[in-house]
């Protein structure tokens, strides 16, 4: 048997966003039904390099398919400036859960962007108003592109407002989508007034004020992925219908981690986990809801789901590079 090597281009080519969204939704539902195994994300902190490594293993049984994988991923904030490399780099090993054979080794950087966008789309589909047609983005990096691609798959987005302190990145984003949407550069306040808002920044002090939000804005809080990070006003977190992806991860390193640690937020302030909404055991948006917020820390089950789509499609298309990775001689 041989392992399939799939680089960034192959991952992107075989990960059509609607299929990734469906797989990620299935993984959330499987998790709610306790049909997943997902040890806590482990961190290797490297302050001398202003970065860290994260190990993310998981198994998902989504009824019509099951799969296992582990992702080795980092966040090195100085990479773009000092090394001309992305802040986040990832590698994923995708394995057959029955035999443990490594079916594929694939790029995890593009995969991370895709599954993060897909998770926001799943949350948006369940928590945003049905007629949402405007999307605000705070942060114009690579994830912003995937957020728009994913969210526009579940809502008829017409207007897009992108905010970023880097005017060059902001304009590049506008130029990239000018022929598809009514897209413009704006302030954080402009973006926050949209029907859907995705925030994708690594800040440690809130940058989105409560009063800037629309009455029924749905927020995808993506940027906080480590202890101490927070993008949103505490008043927003207290006022919103607050949905998390995972209790342990969000209270430790998600958007809610700082006010949680200070006792400002408690269990009574949480509506619940997204998986329970997808599985139908918890309500999503109701007519009485105002602001909703999804705290997305990124789960290993999402990586497994996205990798499943990529591997199956690449295998069907005969794409990728087969190679001998492990010794399978049993003699």
Automatic annotation (TrEMBL):
Its EC number is 1.4.1.1. Transmembrane segments: none annotated. Coiled coil: none annotated. PANTHER family: KETIMINE REDUCTASE MU-CRYSTALLIN. Keywords: Lyase, NAD, Nucleotide-binding, Oxidoreductase. One of its GO terms (molecular function) is lyase activity. One of its GO terms (cellular component) is cytoplasm. Catalyzes the NAD(+)-dependent oxidative deamination of L-alanine to pyruvate, and the reverse reaction, the reductive amination of pyruvate. This is Alanine dehydrogenase. The active site is at 71 (proton donor/acceptor). It comes from Haloarcula hispanica (strain ATCC 33960 / DSM 4426 / JCM 8911 / NBRC 102182 / NCIMB 2187 / VKM B-1755). GO terms for biological process: alanine metabolic process. Pfam families: OCD_Mu_crystall. NAD(+) binds at residues 115, 142-143, 223-225, 229, 296. It comes from the Archaea. SUPFAM superfamilies: NAD(P)-binding Rossmann-fold domains.
């Amino acid at each position: 048997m041989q392992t399939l090597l799939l680089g960034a281009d192959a991952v992107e080519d075989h990960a059509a966003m609607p299929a990734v969204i469906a797989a990620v939704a299935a993984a959330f539902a499987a998790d709610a039904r306790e049909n997943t195994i997902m040890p806590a994300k482990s961190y290797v902190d490297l302050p001398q390099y202003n970065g860290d490594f994260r190990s993310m293993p998981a198994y998902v049984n989504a009824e019509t398919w099951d799969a296992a994988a582990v992702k080795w991923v980092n966040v090195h904030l100085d990479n773009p400036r000092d090394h001309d490399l992305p802040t986040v780099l990832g590698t994923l090993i995708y394995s057959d859960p029955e035999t443990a054979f490594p079916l594929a080794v694939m790029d995890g950087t593009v995969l991370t962007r895709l599954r993060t966008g897909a998770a926001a789309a799943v949350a948006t589909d369940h928590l945003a108003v049905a007629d949402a047609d405007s999307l605000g983005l705070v942060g114009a990096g690579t994830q912003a592109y995937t957020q728009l691609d994913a969210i526009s798959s579940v809502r008829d987005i017409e207007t897009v407002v992108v905010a970023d302190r880097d005017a060059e990145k902001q304009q590049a984003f506008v130029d990239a989508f000018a022929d598809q949407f009514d897209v413009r550069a704006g302030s954080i306040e402009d973006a926050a007034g949209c029907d859907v808002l995705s925030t994708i920044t690594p800040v440690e002090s809130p940058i989105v004020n409560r009063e800037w939000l629309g009455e029924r804005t749905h927020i995808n809080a993506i940027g906080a992925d480590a202890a101490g990070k927070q993008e949103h006003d505490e008043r927003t977190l207290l006022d919103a219908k607050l949905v998390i992806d995972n209790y342990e991860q969000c209270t430790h390193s998600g958007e809610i981690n700082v006010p949680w640690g200070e006792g400002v937020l408690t269990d009574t302030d949480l509506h619940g986990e997204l998986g329970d909404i997808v599985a139908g055991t918890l309500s999503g948006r109701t007519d009485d809801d105002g602001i909703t917020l999804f705290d997305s820390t990124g789960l290993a089950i999402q990586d497994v789901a996205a990798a499943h789509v990529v591997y199956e499609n690449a295998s069907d298309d005969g794409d990728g590079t087969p190679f001998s990775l492990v010794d399978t001689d049993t003699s």
